[in-house]
Design brief:
Protein name: Short-chain fatty acid transporter
Keywords: Membrane, Transmembrane, Transmembrane helix
Number of helices: 23
Radius of gyration: 24 Å
Largest sheet: none
InterPro entries: SCFA_transpt_AtoE
Structural class: mainly alpha
Helix content: 55-70%
Number of strands: 0
Length: about 475
């Protein structure tokens, strides 16, 4: 497995371009497929592309806030200390991979947004801790371990399709009614898949760790205080404990210290504004979480939770604003590339290409083989439509109609789409953008390892849904 993983990682590192280039390449490929397989002409497809281009603006902003608020939360002094203690547990490179992979997989089962940001941050902190203790850990492999949550999320508590069909008023309710979670994510075949992934994927990651001579450790940023300061201290060294200028303070620094005592600046350093926001936030947040639990956690509520928790842990608006600014530096890739994927979705949906692909996969299915081919079709479609909720919205009616015509329970169709959608995240750079932004790695350095896990996950999912459903 070490040879296979490293060989594939070496290939993708050399030949797989940056995620930005991949987004454009996918756009061209989907455009070409639509041109040859549908009745749309070139200009029609350009119109379809532009029509969809701005379709993910709300989603893109939500994802940007996941990154910014998650980074700010994790960079608070209490969170740093907690992560540091967790990151200090591994005693060697394999246990570092095991901790990161198991943690990320569990996070992803609870909520995909939590798995996305917490997995990336856990991989980074474990790498830093290991390097500080002289343990050589292959950082790209650890980053791949931090991405595993996106290959189990749709089978977990935040799965878009299972949650949607259990929501009163969903767009297919007249056809399939309400399907409780007991018939989707809590079906034995899905629980078997999750169990095998929780055990097997971390072991697979561990088995791919290269030899010490081939290990690429994390490159620490000398301007990053977390790389050298594990105490959680935030002292700048420019002032004494009383707040007065220290010896050798320049005129500019003296002005800055003086400005801190102005009424406007005092508000930024005061805990009162933060307390007002946190109390108001908790008055809304606690009843919501008590009523619906983790199942009711959507992107907006997740971001709100991250925001309130981050403000509470930082204590002042100044501290939080500084942390959020650092997090925003990593969000550029998400902001720029999401419109390109929205354009791809626009072509797929408006040209009829998505329907052609979905119909092709179910056209030769039987009641026995339908779950497998529906899963395979969803995995392929996810490469061009990497939004679980969006994919269900356009592919759901096709699959439920096919399931009905073949006499298959619609809940199987729901889970086939859900499981297939998550699998190809292992080679789809769309969801890896926040991870790549935080780790400062290229897609090719990570996706070679995740591709190996994806093959394992695909075999597990296919066997589970085919023989246990």
């Amino acid at each position: 497995m070490r040879r296979i993983g490293n060989a594939l990682a070496a290939f993708t590192t050399r030949w797989l371009p940056d995620a930005f280039v991949l987004a454009i390449a996918l756009s061209v490929i989907v455009f070409g497929m639509a041109l040859f397989l549908t009745d749309q002409g070139p200009m029609d497809l350009v119109d379809d592309w532009y029509t969809g281009f701005w379709g993910l603006l709300e989603f893109g902003m939500q994802m940007t806030l996941v990154l910014v608020t998650g980074y700010a939360l994790a960079s608070s002094a209490p969170a740093k200390r907690g992560i540091a203690r967790l990151a200090a547990l591994p005693k060697g490179p394999k246990s570092a991979c095991l901790l990161t992979a198991v943690g990320t997989t569990l996070f992803g089962m609870v909520h995909w947004g939590l798995g996305l940001i917490a997995g990336a941050l856990l991989a980074i902190e474990v790498s830093k801790s290991c390097k500080a203790r002289g343990i050589k850990v292959h950082f790209p492999l650890l980053a791949a371990a931090g991405y595993l949550g996106l290959m189990v999320w749709h089978s977990g508590l935040s799965g878009s399709a299972p949650l949607l069909v259990n929501t009163s008023g969903h767009f297919l309710e007249d056809q399939i009614g309400l399907i409780p979670l007991s018939e989707t994510i809590f079906q034995p075949f899905n629980l078997v898949f999750l169990t095998v992934m929780l055990v097997g994927a971390p072991l697979l990651i561990m088995s791919m760790h290269p030899k010490p001579s081939e290990t690429q450790e994390i490159e620490l940023d000398p301007t990053d205080s977390s790389a050298t300061d594990t105490t959680g201290s935030s002292g700048s060294g420019h002032t004494t404990s009383s707040g007065s200028p220290s010896e050798g303070t320049t005129a500019t620094q003296t002005q800055a210290v003086t400005a801190q005592h102005s009424p406007a600046e005092r508000l930024m350093h005061s805990r009162i504004p933060v307390a007002v926001v946190v109390i108001a936030g908790l008055l809304y947040l606690i009843p919501e979480l008590v009523r619906d639990g983790i199942v009711g956690l959507d992107l907006n509520l997740l971001n709100f939770t991250f925001l309130i928790a981050g403000l509470a842990l930082h204590g002042t608006l100044k501290n939080y604003a500084t942390a959020a600014t650092e997090g925003a530096k990593s969000a550029a890739a998400v902001i720029i590339q999401f419109p390109l994927y929205a354009g791809i979705m626009g072509i797929m949906e408006h040209s009829g290409l998505l329907e052609i692909i979905a119909d092709w996969f179910v056209s030769f299915s039987t009641a026995t083989t339908f779950p497998f081919f529906a899963l395979l079709g969803a995995a392929v479609v996810n490469l061009a439509v990497p939004s679980g909720g969006g994919q269900w919205a356009v592919q759901g009616p096709l699959v439920t109609n096919a399931a009905e015509s073949l006499g298959v329970d619609p809940s199987i169709g729901v889970m086939a789409i859900a499981m297939g959608d998550q699998l190809t995240n292992g080679i789809q750079p769309f969801w890896a953008l926040p991870l790549l932004a935080l780790t400062k790695l290229r897609a090719g350095q990570v996706l070679g390892y995740t591709a190996v896990v994806m093959l394992f996950a695909f075999a597990t999912a296919a066997l589970s849904i085919t023989f246990l459903s």
